[in-house]
Amino acid sequence: MRHILVTNAKGGCGKSTIATNLAAYYASEGYETVLADYDPQGSALAWLDERGENYEAITGISGFDEGLRRAPRNADYVIIDAPARSHGKELTDLVKHAETIIVPVLPSPIDIKAAHKFVDELMHRGKIEKRQAKVGIVANRVKENTLIFEELDEYLSGLKVPYIATLREAQNYIRAYQRGIGIHELPPYLAWPDWEQWEPLIEWLDSRRSRPR
From CA 5, how far away is CA 167, in angstroms rounded? Predict the structure, then answer.
C-alpha cells in the first residue's frame, strides 16, 4: 500500500485539487484507491460526493475524524489531503503515515515566504531526515511568462528538495472538481495541455526517486 501525502501549512495552495486529481488518476488506471480527507472543511470528500457511477470508484474516508483506520487493506494507493496550518506534532503525525510527500506552492510573495518556513520545518521531521519518506515540490496555479512565476521558479529551483512539476491555472480543474472527476478523466481535446504538465509528477511518483530506500 502506497501512501502519498499532499501538504502545505499555507491554506489555499491547491492541496485538495492535487489530492483529488491524484486519486482520480490512480483509480482510472485500475488501482484500488483511497482518498483520506484530513481537512475539517472536507473539500476532498465533497468532491467525491459528486463522482458519478460511470467512473472508477474511490473510497473516501475522513482522516480528521478517524485517521486511516477505515482504509481498506487491499488499497494500492492512499492519497492524504492534509489540513492547512499543520505544524509541530500534527505535521509529524501526518508524515508518519506517508512514504511520499507533495508540497504545492503558489506564485505569490506570501506563498513563497510561507513555503520557505514550511519546507524547512518539514525537512526536519525525523522520518524525512532518516530518508524514510521523500518530498517533492510542485508549482501550482501558475501563469507562465509572469514576473511572480519567474520568482517562484527561481526559488523552487534553488531548493535542495526536488522541484517536480509546474501546473498551470486552468478552468479544467474547476470543471473536473464540479463533476467529481480528475483532469485525466476529461476529454483529450480539453485537457491535453494539463495532461502534459502532469507527466513529470506522475513519472516521479512511479519512479524509485519518490520512494524511501
Answer: 18
